[in-house]
Amino acid sequence: MAAANTPAAEASPEQQLFAAAAAGDAAGVRTLLAAGAEPVCESDGGVTPLMVAAERGSLESVQALLEAGAPWHAQDAEGYCAGDYASGSKNRAVLQQLLDWAVRAELILGTISRREKKGAAPNRDYLSSSIRYEDGKLMDEQGEAVMMGWETPLMERHAEVICSGGGDVLNVGFGMGIIDGFIQQHQPRSHTIIEAHPDVYRYACSQGWDKKAGVRLVLGRWQDVINDLGPFDGIFFDTFGEYYDDMHSFHELLPRLLKPGGVYSFFNGLAPDNLFFHLVYGEIARLELGRLGLETSYAPMPMDASAKEVWEGVANRYWHLPVYFVPTCIMAGSNQAADAASAQAEQQQQAGDAGDGPS
Fold it and tell me: Record's Gene Ontology CC terms (predicted)?
């Protein structure tokens, strides 16, 4: 960085700020910020003082920069944020500090939610478009993958989670029917499927799902049909063309839809191109579900879908992370909820180990 090679007498306040952050000089950072140094400045490659302080592991410097307005979600030229810098250098205390700050900021400002919506296709546009099944993929007419075969191990695990108590099970979003096949292996008392896309619904019927014993296949958007369904012992949610706000709206219905001790899970594709953003979203979901009476834990599952051939013919890759965190959300009224609470602490530590921030 320029600050490292510039004599202090000639360095700008921002260059001095970089130098103080790199040295872990929290007092210097606070003094420079108080004197007017800009906390949002960048060096070559888009690196910010907050990233430098996070990599250095200085809790006080990071706190001072955050309080001065340094954006926690700023990314360098390679897409890394301050949380990635902390994770990459194994500074778990700083990682937790940034995670807590990011969650509070996101709950107030909705920064990631706005990022997610940018460029995404609205659900109603998707439902009026044509889709096709080809080579282990479900594709829309824009060349976007709605679902892909690499998700099969994830769906098997999700089915285990929501079918752990047997009983009545709901899947929102048929897609390729992968999870529904696994649900059937658990022999639930009843198996309800909601599918909104008419072409996907017809495909499901062509595969005989509308005739399977104990299976109810419902055509429609979940928003339009859910009031006539439930309650359930297990629920899985995985829709296409919707945003986090839509899933949040579904979560608000869980106290009615899920029986006491029932288990909920969802496809955890939240912010899938950045591990730290992914953790922030997961924590927000955990807090929101907790407010509704569900105890949530995330079990890490190695998932490498990085091979070029996996995404051949797909317009945009929708998964970039080396690990997938399987959500288990248990409605109050079961001893399992206490187990989920104790498991949550492990997720934070394992997430730090999975970090591949800049070196």
Answer: cytoplasm; nucleus
